[in-house]
Design goal:
Elements (H helix, E strand, L loop, with lengths): L29 E4 L1 H7 L7 H14 L3 E5 L5 H12 L8 E7 L2 H10 L6 E8 L2 H8 L3 H22 L4 E8 L6 H15 L7 E4 L9 H14 L6 E6 L7 H10 L4 E4 L13 H9 L12 H12 L20 H13 L36 H12 L8 H15 L5 H13 L6 E9 L12 E8 L4 E8 L2 H13 L3 E11 L6 E10 L4 E8 L2 H16 L1
Parallel strand pairs: 1-2, 1-8, 2-3, 3-4, 4-5, 5-6, 6-7, 7-8
Antiparallel strand pairs: 9-10, 10-11, 12-13, 13-14
Helix pairs in contact: 2-3, 2-11, 4-6, 6-7, 8-9, 12-13, 13-14, 16-17
Length: 558
């Protein structure tokens, strides 16, 4: 047994009449990307300056207006990157860079040197306030830790005023907020707000991070709502959240925090970050999108974003990652494939144009993906999926009554190989099963004549067919009349070969839309002894296609 008794449950918030469970997210928060700082410091090989520039430009193209570019006092690369952006005029006028610093004088001064000349910048100062950090790491009491925050804030205020740059804003994080007593976190933030001189006109950003995710998302939401209720001068602060994913619920944590009153969200593309990562901005933004809320970020070309992210970070994206994984728009299950196929066909007639396709909460084309990979075939697949692939890729529309027959053949091959079948393999198998069969019967010659004396009548046996058929043991010829080529052919073949069968179902269509398109016919025959067989035939002449389909069905009996 695992020793679960070594862990204590996270304390709940003493709170009644919560408001957040009844709230709804109706607009996007203020977004801040931390890909270039939190995401970068979590990489085995940190990004170079050139890679950071490429990532910055990607984030700008997505629509981020606040981007944390790094910790410029921590390394020469971080400092050089900040200078490259500023001196190279690479920061759009509507984008604000953010830089992180500890509450230490020499680091704060170097941070200001890094952002000199920036039109808009957020100085993000933090110090850890949790009881664990106070007791284990810093060995300081509450007042001493609060004093660090106050002194750091006062220095940032003084340096901003000395710079004369009104475009500099301030963010404070009581790091390890999830491990900090609520009343103490509030007391520290009040002291910081007072020191900064926060007002409705000069708002401070108070970032309340889930530095380590330690509880269920609802408890974090309680903490955010409690904080928003009890903070003095609420209109002077933007409440920001920065959720990590240690428990695997960072997206839910951020969503519930928004319900609880948060104004701003920090996160990273695809959840990159320390340990289990940061809150995934792609997921939360597209969650809003699928609820009819404008996310204010543009993920319409997700493949491009994915590739640039992987190139810059050398990180991969899981195949099942929400919205972005290689397999998230793919169905192997037969029932899922059938439902998706039907939904896509009916989508154009959906009421009010709303997206409504089973198993697809988002239209893949909205994020730059296509339908090529939605249905893929393996031993778990069903008739609907197989039919969908043939129709989408090759224009072959197998009728419903024939789909189980071909699906059985596909499944047999998939079971034997134990692998996924490509559309090309499925198409080849269709031809092998139905089109290419030449035994025991082969049509060597077929001539059709119409002898209608009255064109308007359609009940006379006015079609004559002359055929030469090669069977396994002989060649035979017949000439027969019928009320159409197929009727005449069946009559002649039954009479000459001794086989007793009838046509039970029949479909035909053109493959393509051009005047010279080939025709394909599908046949279901029933023999006198109860046996059933299916066939298909392709020809430029639709009548010959139906005759070939009949021979195909007879050949498959053997």
């Amino acid at each position: 047994m695992m020793n679960y008794k070594k862990y204590a449950p996270y304390p709940v918030v003493a709170m009644t009449e919560r408001n957040w469970p009844n709230n709804t997210i109706t607009r996007a928060p203020i977004w801040c990307s931390v890909d270039l700082r939190d995401g970068n410091q979590a990489l085995p090989i940190p990004m170079s300056v050139d890679e950071k520039v490429a990532m910055f430009q990607l984030l700008v193209s997505i629509g981020f207006k606040e981007i944390e570019i790094g910790f410029p006092s921590a390394s020469a690369t971080e400092f050089a990157f900040a200078r490259r952006l500023i001196e190279g005029n690479l920061i759009p006028d509507d984008v604000t860079i953010q830089v992180l610093t500890q509450a230490r004088e020499h680091l704060i001064r170097k941070t200001f040197a890094a952002i000199s000349g920036a039109k808009h910048a957020i100085v993000h100062l933090y110090n850890s306030t949790s009881s664990l950090q106070r007791n284990v790491v810093f060995r300081k009491n509450r007042e001493e830790i609060k004093a660090i925050a106050i002194e750091g804030t006062a220095l940032v205020r003084r340096l901003k005023d000395e710079s004369g740059n009104a475009g500099i804003r301030y963010e404070y994080s009581p790091e390890s907020f999830t491990g900090t007593e609520l009343d103490y976190a509030l007391k520290v933030c009040h002291a910081v707000m007072e020191t900064w001189g926060a007002s409705a006109e000069d708002k401070i950003i108070l970032n309340l991070p889930s530095t380590v995710e330690m509880s269920m998302p609802n408890i974090y939401a309680d903490r955010i709502e409690w904080f928003c209720r009890n903070i003095n001068n609420r209109e002077a602060a933007l409440i920001s959240v920065h959720a990590h994913n240690d428990r695997g619920t960072a997206v839910a944590t951020a969503e519930l925090a928004l319900l609880a009153g948060a104004d701003r969200v920090e996160g990273a593309l695809f959840g990159n970050g320390e340990r289990c990562g940061n809150m995934d901005v792609v997921t939360i933004a597209l969650n809003l999108f699928t609820q009819g809320v404008d996310p204010m970020l543009n993920f319409s070309d997700l493949p491009r974003i994915r590739e640039m992210y992987k190139k810059c970070t050398r990180m991969d994206i899981h195949q099942r990652h929400p919205y972005a994984g290689d397999l998230v728009y793919t169905a192997f299950s037969g029932s899922h494939q059938d439902a998706i196929s039907k939904g896509l066909k009916l989508q154009p007639s959906s009421p009010n144009g709303l997206w409504a396709v089973p198993y697809l909460p988002i239209d893949p084309s909205d994020v730059g993906c296509n339908y090529e990979a939605i249905v893929r075939i393996n031993s778990q697949s069903g008739k609907g999926g197989v039919a969908y692939v043939l129709e989408k890729d090759y224009g072959i529309q197998i009728p419903k009554w024939m789909q189980p027959d071909f699906a059985e053949a596909v499944q047999a091959v998939a079971d034997m190989s134990g692998a996924e079948l490509t559309p090309e393999q499925i198409h080849e198998l269709f031809h092998k099963e139905y089109i290419k069969l030449k035994e025991p019967f082969t049509i060597k010659k077929c001539q059709i004549r119409w002898d209608d004396k009255e064109i308007e009548r359609n009940d006379e046996e006015a079609t004559t067919i002359t055929c030469v058929i090669q069977s396994a043991d002989r060649e035979f010829r017949f000439e027969t009349q019928g009320n159409g080529p197929l009727d005449a052919f069946v009559k002649g073949l039954v009479k000459e070969s001794g086989l007793e069968f009838s046509i039970d179902d029949f479909n035909e269509h053109a493959i393509g839309r051009s005047a010279g398109a080939l025709a394909i016919a599908y046949i279901k025959i029933v023999c006198a002894d109860g046996r059933i067989s299916f066939g298909a035939g392709i020809d430029s002449n639709i009548s010959l296609a139906s005759i070939k389909a009949t021979v195909s069905a007879l050949n498959r009996l053997s």
